[in-house]
Amino acid sequence: MLIHADANAFNKLLEGKGTFIVDFFATWCGPCKMLGAVLEKVAPEIPYDILKIDIDENVKLAEEYEVMVVPTLLFVKDGEIIHRESGFFSKDKFRALVQAHMQ
């Protein structure tokens, strides 16, 4: 499920036990829009929530996690970031990333 979140929601999830993906994006970013379309299509197929965090609305959070490029995805398992991936990629690559890092 895609969830538009802010720093509070992200920090609350990070404190808990669970697995989720964070999409740091910007509304003005072309590759972010393209990846957003990929995530919308693939989200129903995966058992993990995808938090969408707008870097312009959550500047401190983006700085804290050293997001220098958008889009940037963080793969989180039990409060620990286990993988980071930046830039646009296809549905197949996203599925492969989920399988490699979240299983």
Automatic annotation (TrEMBL):
<keyword id="KW-0249">Electron transport</keyword>
<dbReference type="InterPro" id="IPR017937">
    <property type="entry name" value="Thioredoxin_CS"/>
</dbReference>
<keyword id="KW-1015">Disulfide bond</keyword>
<feature type="site" description="Deprotonates C-terminal active site Cys">
    <location>
        <position position="23"/>
    </location>
</feature>
<dbReference type="InterPro" id="IPR005746">
    <property type="entry name" value="Thioredoxin"/>
</dbReference>
<comment type="similarity">
    <text>Belongs to the thioredoxin family.</text>
</comment>
<feature type="domain" description="Thioredoxin">
    <location>
        <begin position="1"/>
        <end position="103"/>
    </location>
</feature>
<dbReference type="Pfam" id="PF00085">
    <property type="entry name" value="Thioredoxin"/>
</dbReference>
<feature type="active site" description="Nucleophile">
    <location>
        <position position="32"/>
    </location>
</feature>
<feature type="site" description="Contributes to redox potential value">
    <location>
        <position position="31"/>
    </location>
</feature>
<keyword id="KW-0676">Redox-active center</keyword>
<feature type="disulfide bond" description="Redox-active">
    <location>
        <begin position="29"/>
        <end position="32"/>
    </location>
</feature>
<keyword id="KW-0813">Transport</keyword>
<dbReference type="InterPro" id="IPR036249">
    <property type="entry name" value="Thioredoxin-like_sf"/>
</dbReference>
<dbReference type="GO" id="GO:0015035">
    <property type="term" value="F:protein-disulfide reductase activity"/>
</dbReference>
<dbReference type="GO" id="GO:0005737">
    <property type="term" value="C:cytoplasm"/>
</dbReference>
<protein>
    <recommendedName>
        <fullName>Thioredoxin</fullName>
    </recommendedName>
</protein>
<feature type="active site" description="Nucleophile">
    <location>
        <position position="29"/>
    </location>
</feature>
<dbReference type="InterPro" id="IPR013766">
    <property type="entry name" value="Thioredoxin_domain"/>
</dbReference>
<feature type="site" description="Contributes to redox potential value">
    <location>
        <position position="30"/>
    </location>
</feature>
